[in-house]
Amino acid sequence: MGPSVQRSSMADQTADVLLDRIRGEEWVLGARLPGETTLAAQLGVGRSTVREAIRQLAGRGVLSARQGAGVFVTALDVREDWDAVLQRADIVSVIEARAAIEGDAAALAAERRSPDDLRAIRRALRHRAEHRSHLEEHVDADLAFHRAIVVAAANPILTELFDGFTPRLRQTMIAMLRIRASFGDDEDHEAHVRLADAIRSGDAAAASRLSRSHLASLKDGLR
User: Fold this and answer.
1) Number of folded domains in the chain?
2) Which residues pair with 73 in a beta bridge?
3) pTM, two decimal places
4) How many helices (H) and strands (E) does the chain have?
């Protein structure tokens, strides 16, 4: 009994070390890990311990073993401890609530935006463009952009709803992006530029459609 417990403990520790190296971006997303023999020598453990550690991290969504090809990094961190299925369901609910608030707010913003509102949206868009590498800073910059649009709708109830929703929204968007392990790419940013342009040009129908389609794409990305 003792040796098996010890082996299990070593595998847990080895998994933790590998996870720390992945979090430290020693290997980028999609990178192939060194072979078991190399890792075993680096970590001072046996190949069977490395194999078990890799199996653990594969089960947590961080690594993927491909037959004949090797082991690859599929996420830069583990998911949160709560059940992934429930987490996805929670994220879907939040995205649907965002669409209900932000879709109408975008249309109203296109109709009612003031010069000050447009300046605030442009500033928030620039700030968002500058914060596309760090997850939590990116989420904060993204939420500030969407809030600027809600404010431009000139409906204090919508702003109050959005602000009351923000703590839950922030937590959920961070969790979602951790699951996806990617964020802030050029296509995503261009979608936000198009939304801002529709509001600036006063096209309420396009602003609502662009807002809802962006959120629908986030929802589809969870499937």
Assistant:
1) 2
2) 63
3) 0.61
4) 9, 2
